[in-house]
Each structure stands twice: as structure tokens, then as C-alpha cells.
Amino acid sequence: MISPRKALFAASGCMFLYGVSRLIGRMDGQYGPGLDWQLAHFAMVAGLLLLIPAVLGLGRELRDVPGRNVAVVATFIGIFASLVQFGVDIVAGLLAADKADLSRLTSHVTGLPGFEFFFYQFGPQLMYLGLVVLTAMLAWARKLPWWSPVLVFVGVLLPALTLNLLPVAAACLFVAYLPPARKLVSA
């Protein structure tokens, strides 16, 4: 099992790879089903899976802090929703012949009542909200510097402006946990 500290950094690295792969894939105007699509999506799935031990480690550092369990559970619900979303995108990408076919295949699943809302719109936001809250709680407990939650918040907001900023967002998450990481979660 990977340590929470290593998981934090590896998750950021995978998210960075997702963002860079996505940018490279879009350079030819054909980002959709294909190797670039799959590489980007598998990188993000790896990053999401790595967040599980990372979030557990962050939560352990907040043992006696009220609201810790709510923040951890919300983050896990968001991770689950994101994994489902990326899973649908990966399977559709494997089956699709082109971008139009990808959209058609994805719409079969996202057209289910409540599916798109929960797994594409609302659910993943819980992961980001949970990370911001956990980081703020750690800063409040003086286990992270005051600017760590600010960086996590910026890292969460940047992709909302444009997905092209995903590599910068991943770098924000990496740097947010960098200074005290050796002390923050046990290796």
C-alpha cells in the first residue's frame, strides 16, 4: 500500500499528466477516442485512486476535529462519482469510432435519469469541496501553512475557467502539500 504522503504527490502527478495529455491530444483538433484520450483518462483514474489513501491520511491527521468525517466522506463520494464518469468516458472511448460516436455512446449512459447530474456535475464537485475543506481544517489545526488551502482552492477553480489549466491546477495541489508533507502524513 502506498503511503498517504506519496499518494498525495503521485495523485498530483497523474492529474498533471492528464492535463498535459489532454492538451497534446487537442493540438490536432481530434481529441476524442484514441490513444491520447485513453492515456489522459487512465492517468486521471490513477490520480483519483491515489487520492483514496491520501484522503485517509489527511483525515487521520484531524482525529479530534469536528466535521472531519463529513469532509472525508464527501471527498470519497466525489472520488467515486469521478471514477464512474471517467469509467464511462474510457469505455465509450474504446467502443467509439469517432468523436460523434463517442458522444452518442456516452449519451446512452448520461441520458439515464439523474446520471449526468450526479456523476458529471454535482458528485465530482464534492471531491474538490472536500479537499478544500480538509486542507482548510489542517491549516486551522496548524498542520499546514495558511496558504495551502488557498492553493488548493485556486487549483480547484482553475479547471472551471478552462480545462486547459489542468496542469497548473495539479501543480497548485502539489505545492499546497509540499512544505510540511514529511510531517503531515506518516510515510
Q: What is the count of β-strands?
A: 0
Helices and strands, in order, run as HHHHHHHH
Q: State mean pLDDT (0 to 100 scale).
A: 92
- Net shape: globular
Number of helices: 8
Q: Taking Cα atoms only, what radius of gyration do you get, to the nearest Å?
A: 17 Å
Binned, the helix content reads over 70%
Q: What is the strand content?
A: under 5%
Uncertain runs with pLDDT below 50, 5 residues or more?
A: none
Broad structural category? mainly alpha
Largest sheet entry:
none
First-last Cα distance: 11 Å
Which features characterize this protein?
8 helices; mainly alpha; globular; 187 residues
3D architecture notes:
There is one protein chain. The longest helix is centred in the middle third of the chain and has 28 residues, at 68-95. The chain starts with a helix and ends with a helix. The chain is mainly α. The mean pLDDT is 92. The protein has helices at residues 4-26, 35-60, 68-95, 99-110, 115-140, 147-161, 166-176, 181-184. The chain contains eight helices and no strands.
Per-chain topology:
Blueprint: H1 4-26, H2 35-60, H3 68-95, H4 99-110, H5 115-140, H6 147-161, H7 166-176, H8 181-184
Helix pairs in contact: 1-2, 1-7, 2-3, 3-4, 3-5, 5-6, 6-7
Quick structural overview:
With 187 residues, the chain is mostly helical. The protein has helices at residues 4-26, 35-60, 68-95, 99-110, 115-140, 147-161, 166-176, 181-184.
